[in-house]
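Design review, sub-item: ligand-bound model
Attendees: FS, YL, KQ
YL presented the inputs for the iron/sulfur cluster complex:
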Amino acid sequence: MMKPMRVDDILNNNVWDVDYEPHIRVDSSKCRECDEKPCLLLCPAQCYTLAGEEVLFSYEGCVECGTCRLVCPNDAVTWNYPVSGRGIHFRFS
Amino acid sequence: MKEVGYKFDVIVVGAGPAGSAAAYTLAKKGFKVLLVERGRVPGSKNVFGGRVYADPVGEVFDGLDGAPIHRWVTRERISLVSGGEMSSFEFRGSKRTSFTTYLTELAGWMARKVEEAGGVVLTEITVDGLVVEGGRVTGIRVGDERLTSDVVIDAEGINRLLLERAGLVPKLSVRHTGLGVKEVIKLQRDRLEDLFGLEGDEGMAWLMLGDVTDGLPGGAFLYTNRDSVSLGLVIALGDAVKEVGRHVSRYVEALRLHPLLRRYLRDGRIMEYSAHLVPEYTWPDLPHLLYTDGLLVAGDAAGLLLNLGYNFRGVDFAAYSGYLAARAVERAHEMGGMTSENLAIYRDLLEESFVLRQLRKFRRAPRMRENRRLYGAYPGLVNAIMDQLFNSPYETPKVMEALRRAREGRIGWLEMVRDLLEMVRSV
Ligand SMILES: Cc1cc2nc3c(=O)[nH]c(=O)nc-3n(C[C@H](O)[C@H](O)[C@H](O)COP(=O)(O)OP(=O)(O)OC[C@H]3O[C@@H](n4cnc5c(N)ncnc54)[C@H](O)[C@@H]3O)c2cc1C
Ligand code: SF4
Ligand code: SF4
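KQ shared the predicted structure:
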């Protein structure tokens, strides 16, 4: 039976080899000044979340699409691919 | 920087369809080829919608002998969705022109072909930069090591970080990009065949336009694989940045739970969730960069993808451009070196091939796709007409009457005529 699912539960079907170091860094001081915060709705893996006024970023569930790099209006995102085979490992896409 | 002693004739960055096609073609011709891929295995970073046109890819890869083909698309369905209503057009044929698969599998297969042909495939290596010396690309940089070659073929995909870092192209803009999000949902094979009316290895491609994207330019898709479906959508990122109304994963979820779709997916189980960007250049901007001294660019990195709104051609365009890049290298080699002048033949080859001919022919399609009425007014209009024609037991209207009523408050005559003309000219 298909039920409504939280993003986290959907993501749980994926496989990652998470790196020790984040491959993406976010300058949270810029986020505080950011009005629109498009990353919150447009990061497909919901790596960007709001805790009160603060934007929290976690790189672990990243599917490496590159969206946040493009949509951030304030150049707050220093974006890179994970190193040496780390990160998302797609099998059926 | 450390120089790695061994020198290759050609280094290809990225083992997607473009990179593997280039590497395979050159390895077969006896060039010393290195194909570098950041994923653990080739394919593990690749995402697409679901359907590949066979002939162009087969031309490059030995008629696709042994390729991971799931189903041959013999059913094409296009639906206009508004609210709980949907009007569909369906074509059913028997020709085997395109097939469904997982790009992860297909790219893995392509890279194995490269190895069989004698190319070296290095995985788990993220290339950090192109080495540019005196305006000429002479190799790649990985950490503090440097590998040199006569020519580099850049097939790094849409996020062309290497080209941007080398200052060869501007930063990718949301205006030229679409965001694709998809779920792959496991179904029992016989159940899937029953539900979609498929026999044997027949498959279906289903495209949906309308409020499935909340009226944003884009569309939703469903492809039947062997024992799963790929369900997702692509939205124009430039518009989404300003107007996205809910988390993007919710759009796919809404599809999965949609009253008109959920019966297909009821017994399904999500196998994977993925997202990827698509190039959506308009003609004057395209192609961005195809070659320079010591460098060729193929596939998504060069924006070579055809999106007609009702059909998506990226994999075959990428593979074929990779193949033509390889042929350009061969010709430049004969002409005496990998200079920009000699490599310019790549552009000619692309122009002569279906790749740039098709992109040129459909250069107005991106403009047409920006027309919001395609995603709001028209699906609503068509469904309202159908509703009147079939749900008026006593006072069935004439078609024109139904159109007039359906049109009211939705769209003006003049607008409609203009849109129709634009559509005819574009696609
Ligand atoms: C949602 C969606 C639906 C689509 N649907 C279809 C469809 O149905 N049919 C179709 O034909 N096309 C479709 N496409 C388009 C298609 O996926 C692409 O056009 C095609 O994959 C492009 O191939 P490519 O080889 O250029 O790039 P990619 O497939 O992106 O391959 C690039 C490769 O380079 C590697 N790489 C990148 N950077 C580095 C680096 N620095 N170092 C080492 N390796 C690197 C990546 O890991 C990757 O393997 C779709 C795309 C999306 C996003
Ligand atoms: S869009 Fe950029 S600046 Fe704004 S909240 Fe997100 S990461 Fe921060
Ligand atoms: S790359 Fe994509 S998945 Fe990763 S954090 Fe950015 S938007 Fe999210």
